[in-house]
Write a structure and sequence with these properties.
205 residues, alpha+beta, 4-stranded antiparallel sheet, 3-stranded antiparallel sheet, 3 helices, 9 strands
Amino acid sequence: MVDSADRRQKASSVTGSQSLRRVLPVLLVAVLSWPSFPVWAANWNPLPDTGQTTCYDTKGIEVACPTDEQPLFGQDAQYLGEEPAYLDNGNQTVTDQLSGLTWMKSDDGTARTWQEAVDYCAELDFGGQSDWQLPTKFMLESIVDYGRFNPALNPVFNCKVSFYWSSTPHADNPEYAWSVFSDDGVDHWVHTSNQYYVRCVRAGL
């Protein structure tokens, strides 16, 4: 005879199996739809310095950088990272010698929706290579120089004052994705139907 404890255990097992069957397809879709270019393809050891050289108060007014005993100590400008090191490869590509990522030196002058940007980079044959991808938000921000403005980018790159697409979707709303505004290097989530410029990236020198 099966007692009530056994019945509860079996019922729990069946419910758990059913839940797992419901969750697995969702997990599979999430894995398959994740951008194919992994963040860890880059070295980023060490991270490049951001280029930020000034300190600010709580109202955003530029001030002398505080000492370690003053409020607001520890701002970005007070930490010096590795100087960015870029190599112009002479074929309209630029290699970040800290991360190992190779970038398009310029966009192609065509504004695209987010999906068009993803497809463009995935199908791109450029600079003798065909393994280009749309960069993640983290990758795109890694070449921002916050010590510059209009554009906030190292002069080795050419760009327009515009948004540039990343492959990173908005976590809460799939109709939006992240972009970086080249004028000041700030990231923004924008509707995927908007048309912005693209700077594709690939791993390896």
